[in-house]
Predict the 3D structure of the following.
Amino acid sequence: MHSAVIERFKSKTAVIGIVGLGYVGLPLMLRYNSIGFNVIGIDIDEVKVARLNAGESYIEHISAEKILAARTSGFVATNDFSRASECDALILCVPTPLNKYREPDMSFVINTTDALKPYLRAGQIVSLESTTYPGTTEEELLPRVQEQGLIVGESIFLVYSPEREDPGNPNFETRTIPKVIGGHTPACLEVGVALYEQAIDRVVQVSSTKAAEMTKLLENIHRAVNIGLVNEMKIVADRMGIDIFEVVDAAATKPFGFTAYYPGPGLGGHCIPIDPFYLTWKAREYGLHTRFIELSGEVNRYMPEWVVSKTADALNSQGKPLNGSKILMLGVAYKKNVDDMRESPAVEIMGILDKKGAIVSYSDPHVPVFHAHGDYQFDLTSESLDAECLNKYDAVILATDHALFDYELIANNSNLIIDTRGKFRSYKSNVVKA
């Protein structure tokens, strides 16, 4: 059975199903479509489905032209899960957030698998790409996939291959980012490699789905811990009157044994602030307490409070209270040059400022409108930056260092700048490092 499935991928006669058409699923769809595969996209969001079928994009760095080209060459989006039966591969790219107790919320993965279950058939491969704790594929997907009598490794195949998208990074694309993959059985792994090696330049095989799941967590925990370290160093350096950005730049000249991580206002995005807690949760099942990981999480979660504290102190030094001050947030996306606001520390900072009585506005060339977001009910539009706009604010906080910002304009026309990104290091008179 698995040899016939592999041949369909090699000959590009297989139909690829992408389940979840967001920041991970949409680029993957475009890649498979561009190399000649017939692709069906499945998403529960009717608005997304309608926009894609109309040739429109809802992600800034993915152009409408690319979506329209995919539509022209056969791609179709649907919220009809029965079409999964047409697919030879079902690649799951759905969210895995935390609940209010900072525990894994597996509802998207479980509900999606349950919705696909009636339409699974012999000869398919199911691949989970969502970041999750080690054991998810075996514990949650395996029994559901086999519920209808299919046998994983014989009549149907199951793999885990974590997504590695980096939106806004011009140096990498879906094709060039190596793909880690682990199979439930050796036959599953062979089929999974055949699926991904058509679209990805390098496929990295590991021994199991658990190893692949742990690989993704290690990647993101590595970043979270190192960012937590440099954020803590930032606070120490600030108390000592040392520029932490200067220190990191100097340390980065060492050609071995050091990787540069830069501080900021906190962690954002769907991965780095969330994924480490998948492992801390699972580790408790084995009687382990991951203190190192949790400590870095505490440091990173504190950063928005630190920025607000620095802002309040800076305003106080000018004889102004935080309550009633007009503050402009520069950037509300979680990272530069993207429109993604998920888990953005800028939003957290805005929420804290608002609760303390500040009058908050924002400017972000990538986010023209800011409606309700999580716990925050702001209804704002992005301010256009010019000298008059900047001058009317008591303080501006640089939270996201977009390339489209005119930093000289900002420096020369702002009454007070709270710099969380080190972009105004050459300016002294009206800049406070945070």
